[in-house]
Amino acid sequence: MFLKVELPWNVVIPPANLVAKGLMLKKSISLRLLKGFAANKATKDHGYFLAITTVESIGEGKVRRSGDVVYPVVFSCITFKLFRGEIIEGVVHHVLRNGVLMNCGPVENIFLYKDLMPDYRYVPGENPIFLNEKTGSKIVKDVLVRCVVLGTKWLEEEREFRGLVSLEGDYLGPVS
Amino acid sequence: MLRGEDEDASELKIGEDFLKAKCLMNSEVAILLEHRYDQMKQMSGDSTPLPQVFEKSLQYVKCFSRFTNQGSVKQVRDRYQLAEFELAVIGNLCPETVEEAKAIVPSLKTKGRGHDDEAVERLLNDLLMIKKFE
């Protein structure tokens, strides 16, 4: 789910940038904020950071001992997070023996385990697929699949989420 | 902040922070990200690579966008008393029948919310009209 959230951030301006004229300060703060934001790919609590929409307020700067000034900034941004129980649509990018891997938005590794694909059977080959014998529907690379999120995992080192989904439920499966 | 075990979107338990946050439909995000993309290209030209998260999300929302007219979708948003999350899911997945809508947004079925089948049907018809006349 894409969300628009308001977040606080502390932007640090080193003394070198403060020498410039007062009018440029807001611009330096914005640029630093953008850089810091882009570098911070995602967090466990808010999900993936996509883009800043507006800077709501810039508070009074506090001077640190090192000479840097810290400005408390509040800004709005777009984030992406998967919620357990949410129905999402993903695109298959790999078909494996025990399931398929999909991506949805910025999340690249969402796993759909074969036992959670009722009535689908693995068909090996050069281009392996999952085939539903009853309906003839196929799950193959680049197919759009609607599924329910069973859970997510945050990987601290890679700063990314992994998802686990299922097709068990009404109206779930490949989308034409 | 809810712990992982308590979170369950099917019952609309997604944490206070997120219930207050505005949920965006893919179509709305597509407009915002495209705008941002143009701004970034103008500011830094073609030389600076875009963050991967941004690029993947832009690709995704362009592919999964269902509406182009945000004004009318906003009207539907105001007319029906749905949680932001519920409306966003419906806007993203565009269910065609009331059964499908209740299957993908289970929290609609919660008693006492006043969402009988007729109300859901009207909502789906409104969205369908918007799509037709875009």
Automatic annotation (TrEMBL), chain A:
Function comment: DNA-dependent RNA polymerase which catalyzes the transcription of DNA into RNA using the four ribonucleoside triphosphates as substrates.
Localization, per the record, is:
Nucleus
Task: List the molecular function annotations (GO) for this entry.
Answer: nucleotidyltransferase activity; single-stranded DNA binding; single-stranded RNA binding
Q: Where is the signal peptide?
A: none
| Annotated PANTHER family | DNA-DIRECTED RNA POLYMERASE II, III, DNA-DIRECTED RNA POLYMERASE V SUBUNIT 7
Q: What is this protein called?
A: DNA-directed RNA polymerase subunit
Organism lineage: Eukaryota, Viridiplantae, Streptophyta, Embryophyta, Tracheophyta
Q: In which organism is this protein found? A: Rosa chinensis (China rose)
The keyword Transcription appears for this protein: yes
Q: What does the UniProt keyword field contain?
A: DNA-directed RNA polymerase, Nucleotidyltransferase, Nucleus, Transcription, Transferase
